Amino acid sequence: MTWLITGGAGYIGSHVVQEMVRQEPVVVLDDLSTGRADRLPQGTPLVVGSVLDRELLDRVLAEHAVSGIVHIAGKKQVAESVRRPLHYYRENVDGLRTLLEAAAAAGVGRFLFSSSAAVYGMPDVDLVTEDTPCRPLSPYGETKLAGEWMVAAAGSAHGMATASLRYFNVAGAASPELGDDGVFNLVPMVFERLTADESPRVFGNDYETPDGTCVRDYIHVEDVATAHVAAARRLVEDATASLVLNIGSGRGVSVSEMVAAIQDITGRHDLSPVVEGRRPGDPARVVASADRIRRELGWVYRHDVRAMVTSAWAGWCLRHPSART
After folding, report:
1. 3-state SS assignment for residue 238
2. What is the full DSSP assignment across 87-152?
3. 3-state class percentages of the chain: helix first, strand second, coil last, to nearest 5
4. Considering the entire predicted model, what is its pTM?
5. How many percent of the chain have pLDDT more than 90?
6. Quick one: average pLDDT of 204-212?
7. What secondary structure letter does DSSP report for 9?
8. What is the CATH number of domain 2-170+219-247?
């Protein structure tokens, strides 16, 4: 069978492509707004275009005899979604609806959706399970939750096996060339400050956590990719599957601990973190329960924080050679 991977030239998407192409034929659809064609394994078919283009989708699904879809394409910046909510609903919700319509018309039998822990909002629990109430705080989180609903409903109505995977905090790289180009998450944000010879910023140190800073669940992007392969395999084996699964480690790492790990690996102990005020909407603790994905797919994470930061730093230095000096 052939899998269509939307957004497959992006940071997370390219890692999923790298893992899945070892198992099955893959075709990538990406508008290259944030993705790069050079991320893809040699010989991987790339169609440049948008999931909003129904005519293009129909043609790709038919020409490549696609029987499964991994949908990763979408907008993902929380702050931007607050400024441009209609843009996010168009890209993330209308784009997904168009893709599902094309999939149903083509008789595609498997659909794997890239969701997010942003659907949970500010959960007041030690470990976030898939049954924790979803109360998203941003238009981005709302579009992901709406997407999960659409995927489940379409799967039920059109006989598609489906899975929605809720990512927690993704970092790291399988190789320097596949590193994260963005500076919207903690690890690259700290890298950016250190490269500019500026102190890392910590937003709030008065939370009810062991060291006063926010606690998060960080997961290596390679582990995210292997989770997709495991989920795709399950959809092939079980035509009635309708899964919602967290992708996390179940380990809480505070912002202070992560910054200290970054300083240790980069050798930049000369720049002490500066504490600034809390950011609105930051929950004190968001850590995944990974019990269900282990039970359903037999998947467990393999990479620790040090491996995550080390690989991310190698990718950052490839794109910012001055960071090494």
Report:
1. coil
2. HHIIIIIIHHHHHHHHHHHHT--EEEEEEEGGGG-S--SSSB-TTSPP---SHHHHHHHHHHHHHH
3. 45, 20, 40
4. 0.95
5. 90
6. 94
7. T
8. 3.40.50.720
Element (H, E) at 209: none
What ranges do the domains of the chain cover? 2-170+219-247, 172-216+250-324
CATH, range 172-216+250-324: 3.90.25.10
H or E, element range at 265: helix 255-266
| Mean pLDDT, range 185-189, rounded to an integer | 92
Pair 14, 178: CB distance under 8 Å:
yes
140 labelled catalytic: yes
Q: What is the pLDDT of residue 325?
A: 58
Report CA torsion sign: 276, 280, 286, 292.
negative
Q: What is the pLDDT of residues 226-259, one digit of tens each?
A: 999 999 999 999 999 999 999 999 999 999 999 9
pLDDT at 280 over 90: no
Please tell me whether residue 227 adopts helix, strand or coil conformation: helix
Which residue among the candidates 11, 140, 207, 218 is catalytic per the annotation? 140
